[in-house]
Write a structure and sequence with these properties.
47% helix, 10 helices, alpha+beta, Arc Repressor Mutant, subunit A
């Protein structure tokens, strides 16, 4: 397993780990139902309160999963990259929720209609099995994110977020504005500006006009809170179990 979850340098069939974990028979049955959908930066894929029309399986893009409060505040509690899918709430029986989906990093994703997703769960055993494992991973991620948001300093949380995005985007350069990062972390923009400036002064990242570059990944890992190591270990355990 590489230091990133990138589809380009791993043998994941179709570029998505969850789809790669399907049996050959189930994969062949599911493939005709999938279409490729471009993910544009900061595009809303699902509004809070809406019943999902589609389920996404990112290939090169990254999707933010956010809780939306009554005043419109959005706080990220999970991300989905080439390791997974946005279909966990549907799999667990949640048709509607206050969850929104926003394309965080542009790229491509496979898309499946909700009806076909439900049908595949019922008739493709390996799909249901890997979704069950992935749902456990996502629940662990949500729990870790909740603890992180409550207990850790914004600088360390910012480093954690950048590392996770680095992993899931599969490249060291990726677009992100300070405004968007503040929204994802649930802090003010000035707070994010201070955090990114501190990381930049330390020579860990370079930020210019909405583009972030990870320069010293090891240093960034040391600057991040303990949550990154926990989340990463969970992701790698899932990848090993799913792909073998």
């Amino acid at each position: 397993m590489s230091s990133h979850f990138e589809a380009q340098s791993t043998p994941y069939r179709d570029g998505n780990l969850l789809l790669a974990a399907l049996s050959d028979v189930d994969h062949d049955r599911m493939s005709p139902l999938l279409d490729i959908r471009p993910l544009r930066m900061r595009e809303t894929l699902q509004e809070a309160g809406d019943t999902p029309e589609y389920v996404y399986f990112p290939i090169t893009g990254v999707i933010s999963v956010l809780t939306v409060l009554d005043d419109g505040t959005m706080i990220e509690f999970a991300t989905v990259g080439c390791e997974g899918t946005t279909g966990v709430p549907l799999f667990l029986g949640f048709g509607q929720s206050n969850t929104a989906l926003i394309s965080q990093i542009p790229g491509d994703a496979f898309r499946l209609t909700r009806r076909d997703f439900d049908d595949c769960i019922s008739r493709l055993p390996s799909f249901a099995s890997v979704l069950l494992r992935y749902s456990g991973l996502m629940l662990a991620l949500v729990g870790q994110s909740a603890a992180c948001n409550r207990a850790h300093h914004s600088d360390a949380r910012c480093a954690r977020w950048l590392l996770m995005t680095n992993d899931q985007a599969g490249r060291d350069d990726f677009p992100v504005t300070q405004e968007f990062l503040a929204q994802m972390l649930g802090v003010s923009r000035p707070s994010v500006a201070l955090s990114t400036a501190a990381l930049q002064r330390a020579g860990l990242v370079a930020y210019h006009r909405g583009n972030m570059r990870v320069i010293d990944r090891r240093g960034l890992e040391l600057a991040a809170c303990e949550c990154y190591a926990v989340v990463r270990r969970n992701f790698l355990d899932f990848a090993e179990a799913a792909y073998g």
